[in-house]
């Protein structure tokens, strides 16, 4: 029998399906589950500002026409927010869309990419899809970012340096001084991308965004932000990037698909920018509940990494998939990590108090 050749690119053999986590509908089908605490996807449990559904309702009359291809009105508001010009901004269908666009725009087979580990899997996947080689910088035994190793790795002329600050799933972060050391060490020909999806939860708490470095960084720098987390718009998919490099901006716009951010997402993001108080409320909830959750997990004898995100990363000291399954039987959705070396670790989002209490109670029961 003749085996048919695969129609796929060989690089796909290096990729695993993305683990998007379970939905409420998935878990509701389980017998005995009466209440569900969805703590697996780092969403904002407070949801969007009430003004956003009103803006979306008004926008429904326009859904038969294409949106502005560049998101002009949204870019203008973002430029005002960041004190920059629209020609330094690019929109994405979520910030992970821009990760894919960046990889297609700058990476070639054999290029080297430096990233942190454990990581958001798409940081590595898009690089590998383009045939690039990924160098992982792991955590220290104490669970901190290995600054010395990172500085050493980025000093040589690699094609792309890409990592999240704060890290996902670990939650650990670079201090302003540490971030400065890393950026100062980056080779001037290297493209640097900082994924700051969780920066709202961390800002001013021993952390600072790289945004201030856009004016002084000597190489191409891209900072990614999202409306999916603190802004409460995960279901609409809108993110953006800020860059100091006009050529990089031009390349990203060339590669991204036309109309990549739909009209409803653009309208919602514009409305969200007009109501930033909702972000402050979401951040306050996380900063209030996160230490309480950490104390509760540690009281059960488990190790928890310090976090500046809206989540915690903890070591269950047993197969994470088994523990996550046991928690599902109690109506609690968390995310077991699958990357090598972290098969006993889970990430749990910080939710409302009742959801967090349900998680802590269920965890104590199933351990």
Sum up the structure in keywords.
seven-stranded mixed beta sheet, 367 residues, globular, Aspartate Aminotransferase, domain 1, single chain, Aspartate Aminotransferase, domain 2, four-stranded antiparallel beta sheet
SSE diagram, text form:
Elements: H1 24-28, E1 37-38, H2 51-59, H3 72-82, E2 89-92, H4 95-106, E3 112-116, H5 121-129, E4 133-137, H6 147-155, E5 160-164, H7 176-185, E6 191-195, H8 199-202, E7 221-226, E8 239-243, H9 246-255, H10 263-273, H11 277-298, E9 303-304, E10 311-315, H12 320-328, E11 332-333, E12 335-336, E13 345-349, H13 353-366
Helix pairs in contact: 2-10, 3-10, 4-5, 4-9, 6-7, 11-13
Describe what you observe in this structure.
With 367 residues, this protein is an alpha/beta fold. It folds into two domains: 10-47 and 277-366, Aspartate Aminotransferase, domain 1; 51-273, Aspartate Aminotransferase, domain 2. The chain has helices spanning 24-28, 51-59, 72-82, 95-106, 121-129, 147-155, 176-185, 199-202, 246-255, 263-273, 277-298, 320-328, 353-366; strands spanning 37-38, 89-92, 112-116, 133-137, 160-164, 191-195, 221-226, 239-243, 303-304, 311-315, 332-333, 335-336, 345-349. A seven-stranded mixed beta sheet has the order 2-8-7-6-5-3-4, sandwiched between helices. A four-stranded antiparallel beta sheet has the order 9-10-13-12. Helix 11 (277-298) runs parallel beside helix 13. The N and C termini lie far apart (51 Å). The model has no long low-confidence stretch (mean pLDDT 97).
């Amino acid at each position: 029998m003749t085996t048919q050749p695969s129609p796929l690119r060989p690089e796909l053999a290096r990729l695993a399906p993305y683990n998007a986590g379970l939905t409420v509908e998935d878990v509701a089908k389980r017998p005995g589950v009466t209440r569900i605490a969805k703590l697996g996807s780092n969403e904002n449990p407070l949801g969007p500002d009430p003004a956003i559904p009103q803006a979306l309702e008004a926008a429904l009359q326009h859904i038969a026409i294409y949106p502005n291809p560049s998101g002009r009105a949204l870019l203008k508001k973002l430029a005002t927010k960041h004190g920059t010009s629209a020609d330094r901004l690019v929109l994405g269908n979520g910030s992970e869309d821009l990760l894919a666009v960046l990889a297609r725009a700058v990476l070639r087979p054999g290029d080297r990419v430096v990233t942190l580990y454990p990581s958001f899997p798409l940081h590595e996947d898009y690089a590998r899809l383009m045939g690039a080689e990924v160098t992982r910088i792991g955590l220290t035994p104490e669970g901190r970012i290995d600054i010395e190793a990172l500085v050493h790795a980025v000093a040589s002329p690699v094609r792309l340096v890409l990592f999240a600050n704060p890290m996902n799933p670990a939650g650990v972060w670079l201090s302003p001084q540490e971030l400065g050391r890393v950026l100062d060490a980056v080779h001037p020909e290297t493209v640097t991308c900082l994924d700051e999806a969780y920066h709202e939860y961390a800002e001013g708490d021993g952390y600072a965004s790289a945004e201030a470095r856009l004016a002084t960084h000597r190489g191409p720098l891209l900072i990614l932000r999202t409306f999916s987390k603190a802004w409460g718009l995960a279901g609409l998919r809108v993110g953006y990037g800020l860059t100091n490099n006009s050529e990089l901006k031009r390349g990203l716009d060339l590669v991204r698909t036309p109309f990549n951010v739909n009209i409803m997402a653009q309208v919602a993001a514009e409305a969200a920018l007009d109501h930033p108080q909702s972000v402050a409320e979401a951040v306050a909830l996380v900063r209030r509940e996160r230490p309480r959750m950490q104390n509760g997990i540690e009281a059960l004898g488990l190790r928890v990494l310090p976090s500046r995100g809206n989540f915690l990363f903890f070591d269950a000291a047993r197969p994470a998939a088994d523990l996550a399954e046991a928690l599902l039987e109690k109506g609690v959705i968390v995310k077991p990590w699958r990357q090598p070396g972290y098969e006993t670790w889970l990430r749990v989002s910080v939710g409302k108090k009742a959801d967090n209490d349900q998680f802590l109670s269920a965890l104590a029961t199933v351990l």
